[in-house]
């Protein structure tokens, strides 16, 4: 029962974030200037050019590393006080043993810089209420530990020396140490709390300390908003603004305010977002140090994640969870330095770019500078012909960024074809520079999804399709285990033949293709009939069950092959999916996968 309450608390706080973002998806995730709350301004320029930042979750929870009283807690380790219901009086004793003697601010900043990161955001106070800085507001801080040093002050000095922007994470509402802070319902009674007095006595005074004592800050990364009205939140922002007018505030300050939009944990929006925004990811599955979590993302995964985010106009802030001794886990250091090596060679295609004007292709994505289009090739077409649709400008030169080697190319109407060598320079992401004159226009919105037999499979994400009737295209969040959030976008609410999903697709070549649906379908909705129509042919199918779904249990997906087609002529076609009869929601469709079928034997 307690866990359910816990879950509702988290969701109650997370949903405002999700609801705001969800609302934006109504415009299919493309937030134009008229609807978004966060506007691009001169002071967000550094943030939008930075593209890559380091998130650091470090605190008393790092001592525990996910373990308490011999029990291991899987998932976000910085929540251990809450999950193990550790009484304040017990948890506070950890301060007496916190002595990260191996902490070296210059070393951390050097790693971030060599990783190609342009800003660092570190937890000044997380939900446990412990201040990782010299605070006169509350003695529950790092100066009252054997360490007796202010790591945020030392980081501030090191960042200024290395031209790295420094930001502080601050949990402005959740504070399990304080009787009037949000979230601790095991030592205190939530309904008796006076959140306003918490803000007045701790939260706001500490935010002022951070904005007054650590030099010019790049940003304050507020988190888990709650307990304040929109007017009170605006007043908090105005107070902070007066101290540092150029300091940016994350959208998690609440009420759709803030200077840049943060999506949910580990979430990348399905389309381009035309305002300052950031995706935040853990390196393994925990923000704080979790001694038994080795699910670290590889350098190639980070490079591709960063590339995909930047191609949609955003930043990636990647987290590390330092240990109690002040060292960053070796796995994170090695990965960051490897990503940094790739950025040293290819950074021109990342930093200072804007979103890619060309729709994602089976081979990869694009980013843009005024006279250069960057092609991020993550999958080589089998025949070596890289097809780039929508290039409506005069191409002058085409070359690999990594070795400056020129490439042969041809251009006709709006399509550029580049001849690739047998081996690409980089198997994570080989960047090709297309130098051009003129102004390239956005074709990512309405361009048809390309299907080519030069790739083993082509993914048609639902965001590219047109919903009709009651069909919705919406983001869905689910979790495999505590604090580890997964996000996807699905077509939902298809309950009658008039609720359909229509894809415009371009078959690059004639050939035979297998069409596969990837969806989630609870038991009680399964065994309903669906219909896929393409090229004048009808393919009926019966949905299969993927188990049950609620936000506390994972949303499982299945791939069901529903059609085999022969395309006699390259060109545009539509693929339409709909229920056959009135009924329950047919499924939550995530994507269509089209695989070429070769009858070469
Ligand atoms: O509850 C926190 C969590 O511990 C972590 O700090 C993340 C980082 O985005 N923010 C909240 C959950 O979204």
TrEMBL record:
Q: What is this protein called?
A: alpha-L-fucosidase
Query: What GO MF terms are annotated?
Result: alpha-L-fucosidase activity
Q: Its Enzyme Commission number?
A: 3.2.1.51
GO cellular component terms given for this protein: lysosome
Native organism = Microbacter margulisiae
Q: Where is the Glycoside hydrolase family 29 N-terminal domain?
A: 26-348
Q: Which UniProt keywords apply?
A: Glycosidase, Hydrolase, Signal
The record's comment on protein family reads: Belongs to the glycosyl hydrolase 29 family.
Q: Which PANTHER family match?
A: ALPHA-L-FUCOSIDASE, ALPHA-L-FUCOSIDASE-RELATED
Q: Which Gene3D superfamilies match?
A: Glycosidases (3.20.20.80), Golgi alpha-mannosidase II (2.60.40.1180)
């Amino acid at each position: 029962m307690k866990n359910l309450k816990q879950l509702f608390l988290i969701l109650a706080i997370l949903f405002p974030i999700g609801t705001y973002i969800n609302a934006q998806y109504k415009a299919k995730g493309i937030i134009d200037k008229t609807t978004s709350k966060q506007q691009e301004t001169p002071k967000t320029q550094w943030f939008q050019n930075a593209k890559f930042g380091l998130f650091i979750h470090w605190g008393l929870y790092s001592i525990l590393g996910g373990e308490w009283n011999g029990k291991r807690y899987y998932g976000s380790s910085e929540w251990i006080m809450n999950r193990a219901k550790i009484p304040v009086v017990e948890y506070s004793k950890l301060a007496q043993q916190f002595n990260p003697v191996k902490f070296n601010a210059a070393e951390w900043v050097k790693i971030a810089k060599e990783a190609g990161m342009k800003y660092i955001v570190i937890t000044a106070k997380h939900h446990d209420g412990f201040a990782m800085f010299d605070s006169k507001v509350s003695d529950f801080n790092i100066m009252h530990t054997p360490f007796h040093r202010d790591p945020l002050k030392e980081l501030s000095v090191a960042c200024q020396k290395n031209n790295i922007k420094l930001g502080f994470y601050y949990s402005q509402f959740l504070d399990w140490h304080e009787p009037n802070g949000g979230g601790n319902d095991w030592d205190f009674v939530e309904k008796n709390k006076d959140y306003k007095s918490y803000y007045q006595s701790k939260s706001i005074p500490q935010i002022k300390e951070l904005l007054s004592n650590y030099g010019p800050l790049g940003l304050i990364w507020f988190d888990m908003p709650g307990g304040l009205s929109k007017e009170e939140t605006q007043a908090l922002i105005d107070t902070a603004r007066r101290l540092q007018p150029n300091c940016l505030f994350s959208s998690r300050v609440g009420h759709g305010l803030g200077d840049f939009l943060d999506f949910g944990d580990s979430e990348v929006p399905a389309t381009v977002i035309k305002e300052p925004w950031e995706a935040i990811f853990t390196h393994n599955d925990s923000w704080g140090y979790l001694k038994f979590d080795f699910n670290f993302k590889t350098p190639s995964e980070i490079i591709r994640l960063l590339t995909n985010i930047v191609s949609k106009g955003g930043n990636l802030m990647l987290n590390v969870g330092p240990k109690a001794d002040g060292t960053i886990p070796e796995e994170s250091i090695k990965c960051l330095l490897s990503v940094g090596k790739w950025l040293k060679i290819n950074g021109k295609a990342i930093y200072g770019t804007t979103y890619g004007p060309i729709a994602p292709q089976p081979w990869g994505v694009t980013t843009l500078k005024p006279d250069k289009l960057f092609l991020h090739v993550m999958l080589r077409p089998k025949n070596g012909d890289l097809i780039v649709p929508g290039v409506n400008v005069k191409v002058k030169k085409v070359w690999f960024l990594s070795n400056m080697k020129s490439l042969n190319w041809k251009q006709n109407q709006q399509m550029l074809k580049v001849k690739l060598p047998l081996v690409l320079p980089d198997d994570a992401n080989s960047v090709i520079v297309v130098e051009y004159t003129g102004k390239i226009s956005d074709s990512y919105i309405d361009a048809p999804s390309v299907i080519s037999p030069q790739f083993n499979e082509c993914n048609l994400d639902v965001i590219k399709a047109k919903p009709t009737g009651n069909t919705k295209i919406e983001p869905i969040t689910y979790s495999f285990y505590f604090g580890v959030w997964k996000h996807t976008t699905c077509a939902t609410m298809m309950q009658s033949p008039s609720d359909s999903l229509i894809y415009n697709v371009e078959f690059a070549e004639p050939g035979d293709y297998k069409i596969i649906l990837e969806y989630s379908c609870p038991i009680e909705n399964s065994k309903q009939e669906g219909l896929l129509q393409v090229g004048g042919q009808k393919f009926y199918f019966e949905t299969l069950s993927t188990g049950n779904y609620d936000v506390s249990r994972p949303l499982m997906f299945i791939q069901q092959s529903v059609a085999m087609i022969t395309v006699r002529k390259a060109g545009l076609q539509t693929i339409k999916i709909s229920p056959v009869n009135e009924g329950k929601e047919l499924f939550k469709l995530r994507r269509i996968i089209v695989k070429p079928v070769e009858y070469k034997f």
